[in-house]
Amino acid sequence: MAQAMAHRVQRSRRRAIVNHGGLLLLFWILTAISIYPLIWLVLSSLKTSSEMFGNSWAFPEVWQWDNYVQAWNAGISRYLLSSVIVTLISTLLVVYLSAAAAYALVVLRFRGKAAIYALILGGLILPPEVALFPLFQTLTWLGIYNTYWALIIPYTAFGIPFATFLIRAYMVKIPIELSEAAAMDGAGPLWSFRNIYLPLCRPVLASAALIQSMRSWNEFIFALSFVESENVKTITIGMMSFANALRSDWSVLMAGLVISIIPVLLVFIVLQRQFIGGLTQGAVK
Amino acid sequence: MSSRIHRIVPYLFVLPPLILLAVFVYGPAFENVIFSLHSWSSINPDWEFVGLRNYRQLFANPVFWVSLSNNTLYAVISVIVQVFVALGIAAVLSAGIFRPRLNTFFRTSVFLPAILPVTVVGLLWQLIYQPSIGLIDQFLFSTGLGNLSRVWLGEEQTAIYAIILVSQWQWTGYMVALFMVAIAAIPTDLYEALEMEGATRIQQFRYVTLPGVRESTLIFTVITIFGAFKVFDIVWVMTAGGPNRASEVLGTHMYRSAFRDDVVGYSSAVATVIFVITICVGIVQLMLQRDE
Amino acid sequence: MIKLEAQSLTKDFGSVRALDDISFTVAEREFVVLVGPSGCGKSTLLRLIAGLEEISNGKLIIEGSRVNDVPASQRGLAMVFQSYALYPHMTVEENMSVGLRIAGKPKDEIRQKVKTAAQILQLDELLARKPKQLSGGQRQRVAIGRAIVRDPTVFLFDEPLSNLDAALRLQMRLEIAKLHKQLNATMIYVTHDQVEAMTLADKIIVLNNGKIEQTGSPLELYRQPLNRFVAGFIGSPQMNFLDGRITAAGDKKATINLDCGLSVPLEDLDASLAGKRATLGIRPEHIVILSEERQTVAPACANVQVVEHLGSQTIIYANLEDGTALSIIDDETTEQCPGELIAIDVPSNAAYLFDENGIERLRSSRISERKK
User: Fold this and answer.
1) What is the complex's ipTM, to 2 decimals?
2) How many domains does chain B have?
3) C-beta of residue A164 within 8 angstroms of C-beta of residue A102
4) N or C: which end of chain C has fewer CB within 10 A?
5) Which residue range(s) make up the domain with B272?
6) Architecture field, domain A75-279
7) Which residues pair with C317 in a beta bridge?
8) Which of C187, C212, C231 is the last residue of a domain?
């Protein structure tokens, strides 16, 4: 929508496409700064290490696909799998639990609603760092330290406030008569949540899911602190071990980096519009 | 009977989030404050109430002050780049100066770094900053500026700047996208009315765009400052606070104290300071918003 | 048989009393219309009945059992909303079958019932469409269809026609009336439009400021309004109200001297009103315009402001000498012009008298007598 608006603005004021050469150059430089490091990364990952040092601007003489094979075998696949599991489960939990909470906050009537909403939103101002060590202890005490749950549960808990805020903002725009009509049709709250509100909220659920999966996928400090075995490490932390192990073999390391960003990059390229739209949701009133 | 069940049902919807928040968000944050008043470590698990001793130690520790000033530097530069520069870029991209295709290409390109995991960004830039073989030095040598070359991440004077630069690289495009959404929310007829009066683009920016995004700018500034005082990951990946703790920030200082130096009480005091700072920023935001 | 009964219902929103001491009954197959100006509490009352709002005090009885604490989903009622409230992501067929699906009815039965309802409402062709693809009138039909399929104890309508244009509104009004007969259904219908109330209802309940002003059949309300509010609310254009003072008089004969100069003799007036101020009510259709010959007798003159020719009748808006606005319906297509002076008479046998508290004192007493 944002883009459509922007284009409408553009169309209405097309007169000055000329004489912006300086501006154009500036934007090309900005773009180059933004994406050249990535191009360099991809090119280097396909070179031999010595070629990379000697001639870092050029295309590879021989495309070293073997770097990718080596990186993959060095354990990236395991980290990716952990990341996928943790991201998937935490995202599903965040979206479902937040949607349910938002539904109750918007549609149902009960005492203490405002206080409960304030309590949920309050989670937004607590930086995860502040809870780091006590959280580490709680997880140890619960016996889930160094398991997927040590990441899934904190990701879910810290993801709920924003997702609830986002979904609630969308739900309040759905006419309340729909839930009343459902009640008149004999539906209980659970039915109208599942069959009316969830389907109607699909766009915002998608945004919330996207935002949460980005958060879970890229999360760092919990992943660093709450798991230690290689087979539960997610890609963000796994790459650190990977880099330490491969200090000397740079081009393989770079191949590993490329592999680790391919999933996100693919989604981004395919769903570019929805992606930027989704990630900027809720930031502007 | 059925009416009693009816009354309980709403709470079942909000209960799971509340429990999760209580146990994994509020509880730990509260415990953290308690911890900060005790001397305690995993090797010596005896609790000892020490009052504000951890805080006194903290304020006497030069590393804490280095961290705090690094965070402040982080905040200042981030606000300049990610708020003001980003607003400028967003205004140009929203003004329809370039062809739509090109416009989208520019926007997407600058946004791209925001989707990358911070580890990848950190490791990538470690390579870019690498002396003589990294991209930066190669660029300097090839343009005859070789004498400017230095060990960017290895020198105390440059390390924190090098890291901050990477953050700007990663997040400015994201802020541009946010600003573009804010600008798109400004009614088009405001621009048209001004254009009818023959206003230039600069004047349109000055009299419509700027007032239109005032509130968003405020919010984004706060978000940026929040981020700057909570920063941990990129610093940890790139320098882990080195060299010689010159690039330490509060986040890394806290982490190192708890998980490396095993002084949990002290670490909790650092965490509390981070929390107090972010709360203050939040309060300032609320006050500013009330003034509007 | 009594289907639904309200006993002294009240509803408070915080410290505001939205409904106060509401009592009425709805008999089987009765069409009851709740009517009143906006904000009078009629929609709130419907929502109390539906179970969408909690009852603060009093009792609501449906088919013999108290349902105050029964949630909306279990009261066995169906409601047609002003905004139709169709589920946008479901087809017409799905929209209509929701209630039965929730009740866990067998598929064949559901299909059969939806089909029957769709035929009644001429929706057969539209079953696969989504609400977006329907016109306003069609959506309205689907909303009604959804209610029919449920086979509810009582149908509830919340201003169902107010989102339609005038022509469609008339058509749907007739269809709802037909439907009521065809289904032998019990219906409670909320509207602010007195014409809808008059044309549809077996029984009208007039609400104002959260209280019932009067309950009765359409003609009862028209002929024997209990108070000035009901008198003014029912009938269009509105009844004319002329202020005056009652002269002292003998036990059976009294006269009201109107501020405009007219005197109207009154029969059967309570002697306690003598000497008090009161308001005379006269419907536009009962005012008589005097022809030239009889003008000598004419006690009052009115200055014509606007004339509306409706064809079969003419509505004249005029001002009396003291400035009181007056509307007159004239069945003869007399050619009055703005600015003209006309002589009028107020026949006392068609007049109503409202005391200082707005209570009708001439005719309403007669219905209460008759009821006893």
Assistant:
1) 0.86
2) 1
3) yes
4) C
5) 62-291
6) Orthogonal Bundle (1.10)
7) C306, C327
8) C231
